[in-house]
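Problem statement: downstream parser choked on a complex file, so we are re-checking the raw output for the iron/sulfur cluster run. The parser issue turned out to be on our end (a line-ending mismatch), but while we're here, posting the original submission so the record is complete.
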Amino acid sequence: MNPTDASLPLRQSIDPSRQGFVHSVESGGTVDGPGIRFVLFLNGCPLRCQYCHNPDTWRLRDGKLREAEELLEELAGYASFLKRAKGGVTISGGEPLMQPEFCETLFRGAKEMGLHTVLDSSGHLHERAPDSLFEVVDLVLLDVKSGTDEQYRKVTAKPLQPTLDFAARMERLRVPMWARFVLVPGLTDDPENVRQVAKHIAAMKTVERVEILPFHQMASYKYEELKLDYPLKDTEAASAHDVVMAWSIFSEEGVFGLQKPSG
Ligand code: SF4
């Protein structure tokens, strides 16, 4: 079934705890949490990050409607390997919290297999998710996209506060986090913005590890295919020097040493 067909059932007619819109599945991911991971990329995202590498995940219904049961069967085939590889399952996107019930079903199934679970999120929609979801999340990868509300809105077209509220909630629920910041020349690399990001991360008590991810040009072709304007098409990749400069600011704010592996 093509999910963009007018014949696709309305959201109300699907069971959101059993069915969800999935962009793709990667069975050997190495960058979305510890070890080797089964990564599910879900569709739907309310943000519009200028540097987004996955604009094809933005619209919920551009994803393929999949059954949680069928995905868990697929995951089960990898479970013993993932455990030996000290990995597990990661749900990314898009923004997974567009489909919180689906995430909870998948994570509960993964925990029954004894797998480590990671949620990759901006936190923006966390109010949609019940606390019970986070009972089956071992680690959150939290993207902190900029340090001030003005800059965050420039980068994402949405406010910063939900991300900070989500981090406070993860502290209350004692969920470990890895904080991530994408360094984009001319967009997020202003030293004052980097410092504000570092200050926010320094205040997040469950952060175990911090990653600065240098921007690189990999998504231009997707924007061309989707006929979308790519605001960063002429932006150069962040250099090693740019990353060192950002780390030096993070260090001044006391977050340089946060590299404890989780899981
Ligand atoms: S939150 Fe992620 S998926 Fe959504 S626009 Fe930003 S980078 Fe893209």
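For whoever reads this later: Residues 1-7 have pLDDT under 50 and may be disordered.
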